Each structure stands twice: as C-alpha cells, then as structure tokens.
Amino acid sequence: MFKSLLLFSAAILFAVTPSTLLCATPQDTAPPAPATATKNPVKPTAEGLAKAKITFRNDCAMCHGDNGDGKSDLATSMDLKLDDWTNPATLANVDDQVLFNTIRNGKDKMPSEDPGRAKDNDVWNLIHYIRNFSKSGNGNGVVGK
C-alpha cells in the first residue's frame, strides 16, 4: 500500500511539474558570468587599508603569506602554488573585478569571503591592500610604512 501511494504521489508530482524544471539546460543552471573590466570603486584610505590589513591577516595570510608572496607553511603542506603578489608583474594585468569575484566567490581550494564577514567595500579595500604588496616591499601592504 505504501509503495503504491509513493508511486502515485511521484506520478502526480511529475505531471504537474513544469518541464523547464525537469529539463534544465546548462545555461539555466550555470552561475552568471562575472562582470569584467570594473575599476575599484573604493578610494584607498588609511582607515580602509588598516581594516583590510586585519582581514588579510585573519583570512588570507595563512595561505598567501604575511607579505603576499604566496609562501606559507599551510600552502606548502597543501601543495598550493600561489602567486607572488610582491612581484609587480603578477597582478599588473588582472582586473579589479576579477580579484573581487575571486575573493567573494573563492577559487579552487580557496574559500569564499562571505558577505557576512566582509562587506563589498571591505573586499574592495582588501584589493587595494593586496595590490600594495608589490609597491611596498615591506610586507605590510601600505606604501611607505
């Protein structure tokens, strides 16, 4: 009796479910393509960079290294080959929006930066901070300090 009821329920559900839900195509289920060629809308400030420094130390440095060189014990133990952001050429041709999308959504083994932990402006400030690694040469992400 129970099996009959389950089969009948499944048949009814199948009959009333729109065919578009049952036959989703890749474009229906794929996430939207990330926007490209967007400049960082946040102007760097001392306060914003100071907050980004804290975010970087708490969420990023364990893999990317304290100075952004991509050489950390965790990265080595996970066999990760991370970019060296202290090299000016590394991010020279990487758009800010690409960095934003990578931080916000994650990539490969890198987890996403949840909006509850970092608002969009925090992520944009983090991008300024990361870009400063190649300018500062001192590992603190702030030019001249």
How would you sum up this structure, described in words?
- The structure is a single chain.
- This protein is mainly alpha-helical and 145 residues long.
- The chain has a single domain, classed as Cytochrome Bc1 Complex, Chain D, domain 2 (Orthogonal Bundle), CATH 1.10.760.10.
- Helices cover 50% and strands 0% of the residues.
- It contains nine helices and no strands.
- Helix 7 packs across helix 8.
- It starts with a helix and ends in a 9-residue tail after the last helix.
- The C terminus is likely disordered.
Topology:
Elements: H1 2-16, H2 19-22, H3 26-29, H4 46-59, H5 61-64, H6 73-77, H7 96-105, H8 120-131, H9 133-136
Helix pairs in contact: 4-8, 7-8
Keywords:
145 residues; 9 helices; 50% helix; globular
- What is the total number of structural domains? 1
- Give the second-level CATH assignment, the architecture: Orthogonal Bundle
pLDDT under 50 segments (min length 5)?
5-35, 138-145
Helix content: 40-55%
Q: CATH first level: which class?
A: Mainly Alpha
**What is the alpha-carbon Rg in Å?**
22 Å
Using the coordinates shown, work out and report the CATH topology: Cytochrome Bc1 Complex, Chain D, domain 2
**Span between N and C termini?**
76 Å
Helical stretch tally: 9
Mean pLDDT: 78
Shape: globular
Q: Approximately how much beta-strand content do the residues carry?
A: under 5%
Quick structural overview:
This protein is mainly alpha-helical and 145 residues long. It has helices at residues 2-16, 19-22, 26-29, 46-59, 61-64, 73-77, 96-105, 120-131, 133-136. Helices cover 50% and strands 0% of the residues.
